[in-house]
Design goal:
The chain has helices spanning 7-15, 19-28, and strands at residues 40-44, 55-60, 68-76, 80-88, 93-96, 108-113, 121-126, 129-130, 133-134, 138-142, 147-151, 162-167, 175-180, 192-196, 201-204, 216-221, 229-234, 247-251, 256-259, 271-276, 284-293, 296-305, 310-314, 325-330, 338-343, 346-347, 350-351, 355-359. With 366 residues, it is mainly beta. The protein has one domain (4-359): Kelch-type beta propeller (Neuraminidase, 6 Propeller), CATH 2.120.10.80.
């Protein structure tokens, strides 16, 4: 397994041929610049430890705290990390949590109902690279007890998958954890699985149309023409090793994937989250920020509106970076609505602890 420090250079080389395609997409696939008015980036307290290739999710805060917290788990600095921390948006501060039982990087995380035998919402950490290569390991952190639990492993060991929680696929009830794509040793995979916390079992689902590694996922309303809640798979590296702008949505009711409008600026390892649409739009949008693109680390930010099926170009992040993590949760004091948080990653200076958030003011409704 190559050291992670070689990964940014390797991926940047793969991105060199996508510059022209990205420029064409930017001209053809975005809304006018005036749609961006009202959004701004804010800089927040840094991670206690700089790291890249970590995973993040939003969930109830650890015991002894209140509100919603951003959890940052695992990653890489000069080695594989088990670090776990939580950012409390009410206090605007980080706290240190018990270490992830299995140190790893290139993992994914999502918040979903705790596994059978526990109550409430847990943060799941799945897949990634461990000390000896790719792992299928899945572990859940229970904010109520402050402890980690090892649950049923993925069907296939893989790194850099996407993860999200959504209604379980037809034939099951409740909310499930979805694992999408990644690198299973062949470079890319289209494999998709869902974990049912009640039965603690994984189900193999319809594969992605575009197999990819470094894909990110989020949950939002299904695109126009469909009903319910869908899982969105955004960006990544395709089977040729190039950055792709591919975007697909999975409908748990029909158990099928739909190909959607591509990212205007293709990105791999983007931070993807769903929250209030930008000013002037209605509903919940899917946001994609930073990642690997033409020329290496990018600062691009874009949002997809499921109602219009159109992407909007947003103000760029202050720090260009790749292999960061993030999630959406209420903004810190002094701001309104929900923010898209971007934490850690590789920047031009190396591994960073930088935390920034995009604040889309609540003017367009939800």
């Amino acid at each position: 397994m190559p050291p992670i420090r070689t990964a940014p250079r390797r991926w940047r080389a793969r991105c060199a041929l996508t510059g022209v395609l990205a420029a064409v997409a930017l001209l053809c696939g975005t809304l006018p610049a005036d749609a961006r008015t009202g959004l701004n980036w804010i800089t927040l307290p840094s991670l206690p430890k700089a790291r890249a290739d970590l995973a993040a999710a939003a969930a109830p805060c650890p015991r002894g705290q209140s509100g919603s917290c951003l959890y940052a788990v695992g990653g890489w600095d000069s080695g594989v990390l088990a670090t776990a921390q939580a950012y409390n948006q009410r206090t605007n501060a980080w706290s240190t949590l018990p270490d992830l039982p299995t140190p790893r990087y290139g993992l994914a995380a999502a918040a979903a109902p705790c596994p059978d035998g526990q109550s409430g919402t847990c943060v799941y950490a799945l897949g990634g690279y461990g000390a000896s290569g790719r792992v299928a390991t899945v572990q859940s952190y229970d904010p109520a007890t402050g402890g980690w639990t090892t649950v049923t492993s993925l069907g296939t060991a893989r790194a850099y998958p996407g993860a999200a929680a959504a209604p379980c696929p037809a034939g099951q009830t409740g909310t499930c954890l979805y694992a999408v794509g990644g690198d299973d040793g062949s470079g890319v995979t289209a494999r998709v699985e869902s974990f049912n916390p009640v039965t603690r079992t994984w189900t193999t689902l319809s594969a992605l149309h575009t197999a990819r590694n470094g894909v990110s996922a989020a949950t939002a309303i299904c695109p126009a023409g469909q009903t319910g809640t869908c899982v969105y798979a955004v960006g990544g590296l395709d089977s040729t090793g190039h950055v792709t702008g591919a975007v697909e949505s999975y409908n748990p009711v029909t158990r099928a994937w739909t190909t959607l409008a591509a990212l205007p600026v293709p990105l791999a390892t983007p931070v993807v989250a769903a929250t209030t649409c930008p000013p002037g739009q209605q509903g919940t949008c899917v946001y994609a920020a930073t990642g690997i693109g033409a020329g290496g680390a990018r600062s691009d930010a874009q949002s997809y509106n499921p109602l219009s099926r159109v992407w909007t170009t947003l103000p760029s992040a202050p720090t260009a970076r790749q292999e960061a993590a993030g999630a959406a949760l209420p903004c810190p004091p002094g701001t309104t609505g929900n923010c898209v948080f971007v934490v850690g990653g590789f920047a031009s200076s190396g591994v960073v602890a930088t935390v920034q958030a995009l604040d889309p003011p609540v003017t367009g409704g939800r």
